[in-house]
Amino acid sequence: MSSVVQTRPVSPSKAHPTPPQTPPRKQAKLPEKEEEPADMNIPDNYVAWTLKNQKALPPVSWDNWWRELNYLSLSILTITPAIALVGAYYTRLRWETAVWSVFYYFVTGLGITAGYHRLWAHRSYNASKPLQYALATAGAGAVEGSIKWWSRGHRAHHRYTDTDLDPYNAHKGFWYSHVGWMIVKPRRKPGVADVSDLSRNEVVRWQHRWYLQLIIGMGFLVPTFVAGLGWGDWAGGFVYAGAARLCFVHHSTFCVNSLAHWLGEAPFDDKHTPRDHVITALVTIGEGYHNFHHQFPMDYRNAIKWYQYDPTKWFIALMQKVGLASHLKVFPENEVRKGQLTMQLKRLREAQENLTFAPDVNELPVISWESFQEQAAKRSLVVIGGFIHDVSAFVDEHPGGRHLITKNIGKDATTAFFGGVYDHSNAAHNWLSMMRVGVLHGGTQHGLDDKNIPPSQRLRVARYSELGSGNASSTAYSDSEGLIG
């Protein structure tokens, strides 16, 4: 609803005031109102609320597929490779052009990986103005959208990974996350992601304003003119350093959305699809250690080991050395190792659950010494460490000979087993525990508490619910308030 505000009538003498004799002082420019973060007022249950209340577009079918295509993206992704293929058929590849094409591939690729991705989307380091302009210009040569558009989608991808609000949701298939999300109109808008910081960046605004001119110049004119003016290969510069190079840069970047969520291992967290693999790193200029990246997205590195392939990390580190980059963010090593340990323990837990261990002590019957001796007369029973063992099936398999077992049937062989005759191995301890059939009344002999636990069970991976108590109590320590820290 709008309202009308009454104003006082203007007096005739003030209707046309006389211009001042001296020019007025220039008014100070009011500061621009900062853009409010897009996710400032979203509900706490934003994802569930959005999926419930925002209606998705109907599924793509044979009846409507032609209306659901993004023809601009489709044109870029089909015409460019067509130019490269046809041009390569008619244009000889000179070695100078080949070298220039590979070099320019890395230049424009680093514009995406070191610029769009790690600098602007994740703010993993600070870059000087010259470096920012260089990366913004090089990134435009990859023809993947402006910094602001690209970063907005990528931030949504990290926030809503593997959900319907993820613009390149890997659960929709390899080819969807590779190119399908660009060719077919999305069924839902990507989840909200704040890029107000980029709206304040003058380099980002500059690139956004001149983006069309930059992609034409950096995508095709620069690679063509360098080859043409440098060694007279105008056609080769356009075909190989321009079109073919652009195809490789495109699919190199697209592999971060597809291959990096499909190939490899999850050494830090397997909650979502990102994976680490050297092949992905090789084809994405170092972005292949994607499981690490999704766990620690603000770290300027993808690869944390010196021998892992990550030229983007090396480039950023070099820029720091020459004074063009600073404040390189590195996640605390202690937290990185926690992530690794978590997954290692999880794998050990899975292996542990596939093994059979000694029967639970609490489920074994308690037998008196007299009853033990009586039953030992009928089968091969031996007491070791307070436990009664049925060694009938092992008598003939004993490496030391059956006589060492038969002479102890119906007796306590604890001393002999624990070093008196032979200090048995961990394997012998573990195997013996599987033969337990009862507990001798009176409990374990003093000093044997630790030895009576089979070595395979002395260190076990336990879930938090299996431990005696959690990390916090449900009741207060006292009625008074305390201080933290």
TrEMBL record:
Coiled coil: none annotated. Its main location: membrane. InterPro entries: Acyl-CoA_deSatase_haem/ster-bd, Acyl-CoA_DS, Cyt_B5-like_heme/steroid-bd, Cyt_B5-like_heme/steroid_sf, Cyt_B5_heme-BS, FA_desaturase_dom, FADS-1_CS. It is a multi-pass membrane protein. Keywords: Electron transport, Fatty acid biosynthesis, Fatty acid metabolism, Heme, Iron, Lipid biosynthesis, Lipid metabolism, Membrane, Metal-binding, Oxidoreductase, Transmembrane, Transmembrane helix, Transport. CDD domains: Delta9-FADS-like. Its cofactor is Fe(2+). Gene3D superfamilies: Cytochrome b5-like heme/steroid binding domain. Residues 382-441 form the Cytochrome b5 heme-binding domain. Residues 1-10 have a biased composition (Polar residues). It holds the Pfam family FA_desaturase. Belongs to the fatty acid desaturase type 1 family. Stearoyl-CoA desaturase that utilizes O(2) and electrons from reduced cytochrome b5 to introduce the first double bond into saturated fatty acyl-CoA substrates. PANTHER family: ACYL-COA DESATURASE, DESATURASE 1, ISOFORM A-RELATED. This is Acyl-CoA desaturase.
